[in-house]
Specification:
The protein is an alpha+beta fold. 43% of the residues lie in helices and 14% in strands. It is built from 13 helices and 9 strands. The chain has helices at 11-15, 21-25, 68-83, 126-147, 149-152, 190-205, 212-231, 277-288, 298-312, 316-331, 335-342, 352-364, 366-374, and strands spanning 34-42, 46-53, 56-63, 101-103, 106-112, 244-247, 256-259, 262-266, 273-276. The strands form 3 sheets. The protein has a 5-stranded antiparallel β-sheet. The chain is globular and about 60 Å long. It starts with 10 loop residues before the first helix and ends with a helix.
């Protein structure tokens, strides 16, 4: 295998253009000569590679979305966060002091390789769950300092009112609409959800040969339609002025690396944006602490939420309002089924049993969930 070649790890990776490793490394000093380049992650927002050189290992990121200014802003944010003690992995600077390399119209960034592992809520103790909440709260408060006046500028709703992209969220486990960078879209309209349910039912019932997944999908779609009919009156009101701030935008187990019991790096800042900060805290908990059966580990959620509120300076009312909005979001969200039936992408299929059960369980245990976050 040539030193700069990247073997394909999947069909999706095989279709991705190979990074121009040698040309890229010439932009840096002390990075050595390339030895191997292995795909380690790929998605709608970026492709990732483990790049081994004669000077060590690096994470090479090919940004598929964003522009030079946006990516550079993300990089500057992580550099500043590191000075404030947040565990991050800022990119390596090139010979000109920049962090974004453009080759052939494509955007690349070189990061230090972080040895670590992902841990979900089941692998966290109550104390570690508390530390996770403190970490996210610290991220939000530090971002407020890092982004300065920009963090306190009211979001421009006009910029977020364009038509939605015809794709579901770009990260497994994420429910926020990627077409709405402020997170301030009006809550989902049940009428639109009923229409989507009908479309997905047709696709699930027409899939041949019929698999167990299709049977479960049909069951959950019918179940969710019934829940919406019974709870449509609980649709949250349009957002007036929620507590907003700069947030990571995609905080979940696959974007947090641990070394032992300690967080080593929060990665993937592509969705850094102004959003209701407490909603990110609730969404993250609903991913970290969901059991395979669709229930939340409420004892750990309680420890996490109390620590988050303390670190972020958020009050109980802010968390309670976020719980209601994210619950409604989950009740109307079918991104995994959209990936499978509309995009023919099955990467998120394994998440469907727990994610679909969570919306049902959350509706039944609504008061208990609110108490865990805001009590």
């Amino acid at each position: 295998m040539p030193a700069a070649a990247c073997p394909a790890a999947s069909t999706a990776s095989a279709r991705a253009p190979l990074p121009p490793v040698r040309a890229l490394l010439r932009r840096y000093t002390n990075t050595g000569e390339p030895l191997s380049c292995e795909p380690v992650a790929q998605g709608l927002l970026n492709h990732g590679y483990r790049l081994a050189t004669t000077r060590g290992d690096f994470f090479l990121k090919h940004h598929l979305d964003g522009d030079h200014a946006t990516i550079s802003r993300q990089h500057r944010a992580t550099h500043h966060l590191q000075t404030l003690g947040i565990p991050v992995a800022p990119p390596v600077e090139d010979t000109d002091g920049g962090t974004v390399t453009v080759i052939g119209g494509r955007y690349y960034a070189l990061h230090p390789w972080i040895d670590g592992r992902h841990r979900d809520g089941a692998q966290l103790t109550a104390v570690e769950s508390l530390r996770l909440g403190s970490l996210l709260g610290l991220v939000h408060t530090c971002l407020d300092l890092v982004m300065g006046a920009e963090a306190r500028r009211p979001p421009d709703r006009a910029d977020a009112s364009g038509s939605a992209r015809p794709i579901p969220p770009a990260r497994p486990g994420e429910a926020a609409d990627p077409a709405d960078p402020t997170g301030l879209a009006d809550p989902a309209d049940p009428a639109d959800t009923y229409e989507l349910i009908g479309e997905l039912l047709t696709l699930a019932r027409g899939r041949l040969p019929r698999r167990a997944f299709d049977v479960l999908a049909e069951h959950r779609l019918l179940e969710r339609r019934d829940l919406l009919e019974r709870h449509a009156h609980r649709r949250p009101p349009p957002v007036a002025e929620p507590a907003t701030g700069w947030v990571h935008g995609d905080f979940h187990p696959l974007n947090l690396l641990y070394r032992g019991a300690e967080p080593a790096a929060i990665v993937d800042w592509d969705r850094l944006a102004v959003q209701p900060r407490a909603e990110e805290a609730v969404r993250a908990a609903a991913i970290f602490f969901v059991r395979p059966t669709g229930e939340l580990e409420l004892a750990k959620v309680r420890a996490y939420a109390r620590a988050y509120r303390c670190a972020a300076g958020a009050d109980a009312a802010e968390l309670a309002a976020a719980v209601h909005r994210v619950w409604w979001e989950r009740l109307n969200d079918f991104w995994i089924l959209r990936w499978r039936y509309q995009l023919h992408d099955r990467r998120a299929d394994p998440q469907f049993p727990a994610a679909s059960a969570l919306a049902v369980w959350w509706t039944k245990e609504y008061e208990a969930v609110c108490e865990a976050f805001a009590g």
